[in-house]
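Please check this record.
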Amino acid sequence: MPRPALLRPNRRTLLIGGAALGAGIAVPASILALTAGRIAEPFTLGVASGDPLPDSVVLWTRLAPEPLLEDGGMPQRAVDVEWEIAADDAFQAVLQSGTVQALPEEAHSVHVDVGGLASGAPYWYRFRVGGEVSPVGRTRTAPAAGSLNPISFGVTSCASFEEGWFTAYEHLAQEDLDVVFCLGDYLYEYAAGKQGGVRRHEGDEMNTLGEYRRRHAQQKTDRDLQAAHAAAPWIVTWDDHEVDNNYAGLKPENDEPGQGNASLTDFTARRTAAYQAYWEHMPLRRFRKPVDTSLPLYRGFDYGDLARFSVLDTRQYRDPQPYGGKKDMVGPEQWATDMLGEEQHRWLEQNLVESRAVWNVVPQQIFFANMDYKVGGPGAYNDGWDGYQASRDRILGLVAEREIENFVVLTGDVHCHYLNDLRRDFEDDASPVLGSEVVVTSVTSNGDGASISAGQLERWQSDMPYMHYRQDRRGYVTCEVSPEQFRADFHTLEHVSTKGAPRETEASFVIEAGVAGAQRL
């Protein structure tokens, strides 16, 4: 049966006869009212779900009646939050319900891991605090083991609040998707005004827990982002800007004297704060809550026997960038740096080798193919896998030696759409193609962008013959996967500097099962 359309968040939810009318909220300037313990307008950040398994899903919200305050305008006490999940959007068939406590030490966030659900099924959920009812969200569990039913998913990355309106999320919310993958740079850490654009962050560059909480909250006040979260479950991973631009492990972007982050102790505290705020604001399970400086984010999801998703964390465990991350340096340091850490490498290898799925998909953050960004080269993007060639070679070597078929990498970070062949040796045009890389552009980062002409594409392809497509517009990607093929549709917006730009499907590619490489439709 078709999924009912999700109502856009545009007014407060009312409860009449046990059914929610409307699915949204307004965000007034001041919305804290504590009268006899009652909290008015607690759901200013919307709702979300994530990390779907065949029998469970995480439901999320955060109570924040004044979202731009570091404490969200909440009292320093635990608050009971009721939740319910139903088989219909009118909540006539409530399947499960319960009460959890939103704690001040967790920014009054709620992470409910609902189990005992049917596989591959849609559900609707909501929260209640006193007389206040949240927007309604729609989620979906993963298919059961053995299923080969087709799936569809969205891919997003790089959403700068300042540089544009989140129209891409508006369109994404209207897609009929089983799940959405966010590949990092969910927000940006910069001080207000640094990125320019159509609106402003609040505050200076983030360093403290309160500052990260406020930035996450401001990001989530956007109604288009709320609608996208409420439309489908999300599987999230981070890149650098959730903490600090180009950080690597416990090394910040600037660690030289006079550059602002010279103290390792200071950056350790900063990363700890950023990880805590990230967990608080994402639909992640409770056991992933950060401990000390770590948050266990790499993880796997099986969608029946159709697709295995191995989600990577390419920030937390990596060595510092070779040559200080300089893009124009190429040399032996790139073969002495580790991207994933040994434990994550072994986990990924086991996931790939033991997979029974038709498609082996690796959602991750950064450009995987060679990036010869200087026409006439050589050039390397040393914050990407170019700078960690030993790690990349280890993965591609395993794919080649173990004959792992239908290998697809999903990538964000670079603010452009790309479709790349993945070769065992990118410098050898005769090297066999082992898989494909689908790179999603940004939601808003870099502003409106500009269309890439055929001539420009040809010049790039002269240095990168494995690159079939590049487009410098904002947007997102949707993928439809069946046992026979993997289809990627690259959606673009003409502009993000004004609201409501129409969406165009600028290019589509298909990968046939058992045939390495993609073909443009």
In short: The two ends are 29 Å apart (CA to CA).
